[in-house]
Amino acid sequence: ALSKSLDEAFSLWKQLLDHPGIPSVRSPEQTVTSLHLLATLYKLQAKPIQALESFLLLCSLCRSVGDIPGTAGALSHLTRLLLQLERLSHAQVSLE
């Protein structure tokens, strides 16, 4: 019940960002921040799969808008989560 709003927000972000290219949002920077916050909240709630999906979405958005530091940060968080889940081969792919 606590994560229902987060799940709804993730679903809406995913629908909006599923299309290739730069999404039509008012502020890509605020969208990046919102997705980062969403992923972090999932992580704090001990929902690693949802956090992984959120960081993947964040990484995709950062790549679309050309935010190289944002992409690196999202990949870093993604890799740390994969290591915590003991998915070493997936973490290695993420690092490469």
Automatic annotation (TrEMBL):
Top-level taxon of the source organism: Eukaryota
Record InterPro entries: TPR-like_helical_dom_sf (IPR011990)
UniProt-recorded name of the protein: ESPL1 protein
